[in-house]
Amino acid sequence: MRRHGWLRLPFWLTYLFLYAPIVVLVVMSFNRNESPYSWGGFSLDWYGRLAENTSIRTGLVNTLIVALGSTALSTVLGTLLAVGLARHTRSRLLDALSTLPAILPDLVIAIGLLVFYSAIKLTLGLHSVLIAHTVFGMAFVAAVVRARLGGMDTSLEEASRDLGATPLTTFVKITLPTLAPGILAGALLAFTLSLDEFVIAFFTAAPSEPTLPIVIYSMVRFGVTPEINALATLLLAVSFTVVIVAQRLTRLTEALR
Amino acid sequence: MTARQPARVLGKAAGRLATMGPGFGFLAVFLLVPLALVLSYTVFRRGRFGGVVYEPTGENFARLADPLYLDVVIGSVKLAAITTLLALLLGYPTAYLIARLPARWKVVALVAVVLPFWTNFLIRTYAWIVLLNSEGPVNSGLEALGLGPVELLYTDGAIVAGLLYAYLPLMILPLYSAVERLDPELREASANLGARPARTFWSVTLPLSLPGVLTGCVFVFVPSLGNFVIPELLGGGRRIMVGNLVRDQFLKARDWPFGSVLALAVVAVLVALLFAQAWATRRAGRGA
Questions:
Q1: pLDDT tens digits for range B242-280
Q2: Are residues B83 and B16 in the same domain?
Q3: Do B90 and A13 make contact, defined as CB atoms within 8 angstroms?
Q4: How many domains does chain B have?
């Protein structure tokens, strides 16, 4: 470190830049003042106001429905896809296709689905967001599970087949349990991405059924209220907990391997 | 054995269909068909209330050259490029130092980089409204120093700050994995041969980590170009970027063909940059 003394400035600047806004938000959420910009003493008022806010509550429920549904669908489709890509084909084209939703800008996926839904005259609602989130969720699950498949020993699967097990039995009894940590990590990723996703939901949701990010967007657009600080603090706490737990989990599974 | 051959071929096909069939079927319907629709819309006339009239036209592409839209494109490219450059200037030294940390601290430093990235994107953008507001903490600080208040919010600078905040981790991670892989012996050899640290950096470290640099640049530049939320919330709608234009063509102006052309342009930039990145990776691979 000593030799790189002058590099420390941008290093610490990066972390200051990343965390200063978060610290300000959290501090402001405990601020008694109506103006979100000056300090008026400690208070939990905004958390109370937040709990009474029905549009946020509806948004949260909608978001959870979409995230749970799309995660379930993404996990099944993505896991199967990963196994197929690793075991049944060498096509680089199919490989590229499976990662396409993760590479394409979200705006492009969003307008594509808007145009498509309109062409088939599908009524927008939570189902249309759920499908849209599955498009990219599946790609991330497939990528994570494939990484796990890459390091997997195939001799167990071969032994199972040699002993006369059907492909389905081998898949359920050998492949799936070995892949479980990868599948769990992929599902967690798909869930978190769906919870936070705004752009695609904005284009594919019905105005009457907004997800939480859409509700936050309209709140931020039509004026600043300190309730958002409280909401931000809660969401930060949830995200930080999930990331740290996931981090611990992966370290645990690595230690067990 | 010969009798089992057709059964095995059949079994292979069944395995393929059972594993990849549902996933690729889903992607074909909900990704490829929509993309093909968008692509086809670029050559048709606009419908009055969205959609298209199926009369071929070159008008939509011609409109890209309209000075009004050209200005938007140039302005967006400029802001996205400044963001990318700043991300590189902050990100490279950070990634470099993280790679030199002891293993324990490495994990902590990396998680700390990614952590803000896992919080809601709108909340992260909102944080900058609070920070940069005329009564916000930054301006209070400036006032205390006798320098303020300065208008910080609703400027290009605020947009760049927001974009940088949103995408900086996407620069640091690929840089980190590129720097981490470098063989320390190469740098030592360079130093032993009498090269100064700066010389070693410019002729050994940087060229070898170039693929990571380019990956990071693509990861920051492309989403910055297509973002419409940050220009709206932090730019106050004064600066229109390509993302805003696309959003407006689809949701406000209802000119889907022109919106499709703009989206295609963003994808074209992405593809060009990915090719440049792949080319640089191959070159760096040969040099090592």
A1: 999 999 999 988 899 999 999 999 899 889 988 888 888
A2: no
A3: yes
A4: 2
